[in-house]
Amino acid sequence: MTPPCPQCHTAFVVPRRRAQTTAAAIGGIAGAIQGASSAMTDAKENDDPLGVIASAILGGLLGGAAGCVAGSAIGAPIDQALPDNFRCQACGHVFDANRTDPVLT
Asked: Is 32 within a domain?
């Protein structure tokens, strides 16, 4: 449950998910590179150029998806520890859900 905005008291509050988004992007890129590279290495033994290309594409897609999921899972707990992890969509106020004093937010 997201907390209400301490400034305008609306419920239009969303988590910012900065670390989760960044880690998912880095994991997706790294997974795609690793997946394509390992698929190309395995497919080069067959000497089939279409097989190498198809393996690289499929390996990149699967590796990218796996890396994106892993990065998102790693970034989620980091987001909970970061300050100012909520944004009000009504007034644009950025705040931390753990702070209760409106003067400090």
From this structure: yes
